[in-house]
């Protein structure tokens, strides 16, 4: 039905014009002004609700500055818009024409009332501005006036915080590089303060000008206080965004050791107010105690200290290695028992096959995984990488194509790829040759520590049990390789991966049902590899010793490796896949069909309603979800030919009209936090990558939790004034000086003893 303009002498209607038409406002006062300006006497008796429902004004009656075009298809008015442009005289040229929209003739009384109302409105505006100015003045007067000493102290603190933040940003440790240098050099923090004073920092000069040259400017306690304030301020900036977003996922990294105590890096993944997926590093959590104690510690950190609710946690992923894997699996199970929607999933930063192998608690598998990590670190140096490529060329000189392919495969980071076990098996002969050459070190270009590391890795690899384990892992994980690669792909790949899990489990079950046949082939392959690199085929020495002690008959190699390697690996992989991709997890991933590109691939024949019950309580209007999903599908199915279907959740959330689908909008935000989905900027720096870069940049004894926090989160706003305010509130100047003096006295007494 067309809209007609209610203005006098205006004949425009929506079917004949591209102009926007606007409803009369519901607000009675604004609606009265609109009617008054229209000069339509017949509208004065109608209520604002009636006018809003049945009457419109076209855009021609508003100042252009009052009209905003938010998109090619949407035009809105500013909240304060008033119609002021009307034709009130053209009907006088044809007095015999019958006019439905009669113009009200204003009497002198009407004109006087209008002027009074406009004058009163102007006076009110002036009065409100004056009140606001007075309130501002009063507020300024109420603020405590700082003394000269207090201002100087705050400037001094600001300089200190600037120095601490700079140390964190530039990965500069507090202490010198070598422990022996502490007697010769001041710590880096003190050296930086000296530099600032020499460069003209007056606040620091006034504070330390009378200090002895060989004394510390700040005690260890004061330095610790500064670091804590910096760390907490940066963390609070990120937590504010998490609280605004509400839903988040919990991600933990591999263990980090500070002062001989193991800590768990803690990350949170969330969608911010700009609908951008973020994953931020928040803290290190002590790893001591059993699994229930660790769960309690995590809950206390998130809820009591950070003000979050674990009821809003929608996913968890734990990038654990070595002996910590079993403990973190137990932690994940305990968290899911208390919070069923905190779905345990693989982490998008780690290849699925690496995760599956890490999850196996068998010593031989853990030795292989630790050796892979050592190999990755060993070949980071260009000299060792060059030696490896030389060994590949030597070994594959009769098959240059295979050698070139292997050189291409052993790029930095190859030990973390989906096909790592395939590459490792092909590289085993040249790898051992490379280690032998490094051990010989004929040209003397390798340090003794490098030679020792190479020898240790070679000794580990030259063991038949390790060779068998690598072969078994390669063959079993072949069935999950494509599935895992799709999980780290685009949204469409992840959706199809979720729907292909049945086929993956079917293949693993088929192997399990015919384990004798498969093991025979795999064992022959291991023997062939061992023979080629001259490794004796034998049962592990440790098992033989236990066997003799138990006075059990001799066991052959093939049945031993079937019972103690092949069967445990296949059963462990099957169990882990089933745990990681439970029915609830798959339901969540199948909801990715909400992304328009996935809907298009499925010919818009999707059934999100069947899986939506997982997140029903997270939706603003769950009862209208079926109707909304129908409209969502229709919108994209009947789009224009020039309209491209968004391919990711991020693209979809950036659409301006997604807000008109509140359930879909909320659904996509929750799905986006699932830790199995890759970050949009995964090719660039991530929080976990920045943390690893910090740890790699200096020796372990120089790691500092607070400086690591500052270094990883350099993109977060560092508000020095907030830091100064917090410090003044927590550590008043008098108390700080008393603490420093008592610490100095304690140090002197310790020296006398």
Automatic annotation (TrEMBL):
Question: What InterPro entries does its record include?
Answer: IFN-induced_PKR_regulator (IPR052958), THAP_Znf (IPR006612)
Among Pfam families, the record links this protein to: THAP
| Region (Disordered) residue spans | 125-149
**Top-level taxon of origin:** Eukaryota
Instruction: Provide the THAP-type domain boundaries.
Output: 1-86
- UniProt keywords, alphabetically: DNA-binding, Metal-binding, Zinc, Zinc-finger
Q: Name one GO molecular function term.
A: zinc ion binding
Please state what the protein is called: THAP domain containing 12b
The species this protein belongs to is Haplochromis burtoni
């Amino acid at each position: 039905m067309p809209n007609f303009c209610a203005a006098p002498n205006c004949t425009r209607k929506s079917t004949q014009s591209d102009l926007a038409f606007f409803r009369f406002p519901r607000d009675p006062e604004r609606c009265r002004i609109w009617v008054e300006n229209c000069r339509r006497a017949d509208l004065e008796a109608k209520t604002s609700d009636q006018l809003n429902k049945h009457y419109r004004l076209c855009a021609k009656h508003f100042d252009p500055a009052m009209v905003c075009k938010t998109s090619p298809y949407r035009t809105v008015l500013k909240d304060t818009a008033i119609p002021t442009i009307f034709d009130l005289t053209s009907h006088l040229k044809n007095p015999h024409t019958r006019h439905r929209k009669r113009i009200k003739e204003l009497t002198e009384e009407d004109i006087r009332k209008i002027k009074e109302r406009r004058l009163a409105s102007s006076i009110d505006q002036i009065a409100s501005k004056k009140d606001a100015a007075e309130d501002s003045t009063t507020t300024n007067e109420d603020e405590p006036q700082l003394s000269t000493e207090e201002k100087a102290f705050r400037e001094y603190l600001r300089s200190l915080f600037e120095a601490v933040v700079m140390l964190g940003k530039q990965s500069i440790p507090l202490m010198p590089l070598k422990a022996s240098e502490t007697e010769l050099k001041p710590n880096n923090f003190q050296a930086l303060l000296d530099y600032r004073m020499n460069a003209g920092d007056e606040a620091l000069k006034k504070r330390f000008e009378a200090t002895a040259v060989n004394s510390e400017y700040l005690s260890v306690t004061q330095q610790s206080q500064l670091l804590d304030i910096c760390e907490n301020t940066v963390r609070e900036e990120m937590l504010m965004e998490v609280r605004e977003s509400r839903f988040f996922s919990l991600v933990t990294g591999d263990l980090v050791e500070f002062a001989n105590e193991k800590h768990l890096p803690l990350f949170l993944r969330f969608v911010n107010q700009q609908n951008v997926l973020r994953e931020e590093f928040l803290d290190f959590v002590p790893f001591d105690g059993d699994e229930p104690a660790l769960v309690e510690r995590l809950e206390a950190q998130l809820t009591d200290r950070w003000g979050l609710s674990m009821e809003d946690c929608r996913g968890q992923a734990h990038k654990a290695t070595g002996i910590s894997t079993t403990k973190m699996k137990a932690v994940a199970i305990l968290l899911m028992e208390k919070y069923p929607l905190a779905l345990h999933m693989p982490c998008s930063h780690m290849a699925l096959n690496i995760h599956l192998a890490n999850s196996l608690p068998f010593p031989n598998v853990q030795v292989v995984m630790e050796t892979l990590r050592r190999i990755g670190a060993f070949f980071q140096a260009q000299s060792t990488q060059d030696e490896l490529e030389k060994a590949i060329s030597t070994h594959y000189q009769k098959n240059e194509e295979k050698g070139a392919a292997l050189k291409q495969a052993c790029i930095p980071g190859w030990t973390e790829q989906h096909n790592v076990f395939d590459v490792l098996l092909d590289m085993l002969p040249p790898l051992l040759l490379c280690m032998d050459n490094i051990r010989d070190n004929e040209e003397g270009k390798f340090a003794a520590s490098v030679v020792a590391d190479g020898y240790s890795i070679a000794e580990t690899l030259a063991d038949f049990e390790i060779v068998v384990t690598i072969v078994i892992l390669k063959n079993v994980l072949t069935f999950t390789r494509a599935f895992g690669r799709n999980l780290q792909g685009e949204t469409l790949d992840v959706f199809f991966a979720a729907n292909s899990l049945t086929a993956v489990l079917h293949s693993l079950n088929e192997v399990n049902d015919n384990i004798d046949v498969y093991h025979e082939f795999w064992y022959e392959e291991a023997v062939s590899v061992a023979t080629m690199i001259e490794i004796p085929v034998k049962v592990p020495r440790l098992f033989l010793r236990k066997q003799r002690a138990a006075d059990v008959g001799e066991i052959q190699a093939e049945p031993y490796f079937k019972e103690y390697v092949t069967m445990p690996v296949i059963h462990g992989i099957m169990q882990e896949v089933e745990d990681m991709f439970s029915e609830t997890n798959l339901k969540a991933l199948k909801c990715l069909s909400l992304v328009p590109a996935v809907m298009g691939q499925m010919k818009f024949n999707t059934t999100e309603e069947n899986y939506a019950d997982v997140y029903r309580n997270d939706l603003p209007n769950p009862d209208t979800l079926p109707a909304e999903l129908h409209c969502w599908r229709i919108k994209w199915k009947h789009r224009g030919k020039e309209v491209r279907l968004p391919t990711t959740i991020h693209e979809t959330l950036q659409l301006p009209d997604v807000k008109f689908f509140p359930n879909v909008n909320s659904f996509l935000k929750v799905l986006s936090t699932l830790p199995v989905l890759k970050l949009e900027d995964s090719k660039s720096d991530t929080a976990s990558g920045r943390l690893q870069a910090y740890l790699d940049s200096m020796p372990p004894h120089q790691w500092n939790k607070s400086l690591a926090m500052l270094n990883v989160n350099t993109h977060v706003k560092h508000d020095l004034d907030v830091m100064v305010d917090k410090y003044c509130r927590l550590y008043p100047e008098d108390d700080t000086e008393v603490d420093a003096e008592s610490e100095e006295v304690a140090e002197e007494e310790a020296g006398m003893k």
